[in-house]
Amino acid sequence: MAMTAARIIADHLPWLNAQAAWYRLSPDDTADLAAETALKLMANARRYDPRKPFKPWARAVLANTYKSWLRKSRETLGELPDHPAHDRTDSLVLAREITDAISEACRESVAGNALRLYALGYSYEEIARIEGIPVGTVRSRVNTARRIVAAKLAR
After folding, report:
1. How far apart, in whole angstroms, are the C-alpha atoms of residue 134 and residue 82?
2. How far apart are CA 122 and CA 55, in angstroms?
3. What would the pLDDT profile of 38-67 be if each residue is shown by its tens digit?
């Protein structure tokens, strides 16, 4: 199982770098964060269940690695410099609003479940297999759910 996880991790390194870039770090820090996350994924490869999607697990490890960096920075520097990634209050409020809107969309339409799975990191093809529907239908449902969520957020 560890070899399977190692192959999956290696195949997802470009994706991991792209995810690390969301934290708006310098290019070197972004690469370091992705590399450290990959090392943690490798060290914990035995915990990975290949029957489950890789990306949500990797994204959680990445977020926890970033949080550890923040804690270490606070201990080292005493106070963090102004940085967009460090002011999370607005982001947390917006994330909660989006989550609530997606939950409402799930209750109101069959399209909401497709968007929820997409937000969890599943591809259109994976959602199609899970739901037992064509990929085109998944795309349509995700688009419909996005419009529902956007309308709820615009209120």
Report:
1. 47
2. 8
3. 888 888 888 878 788 888 888 888 888 888
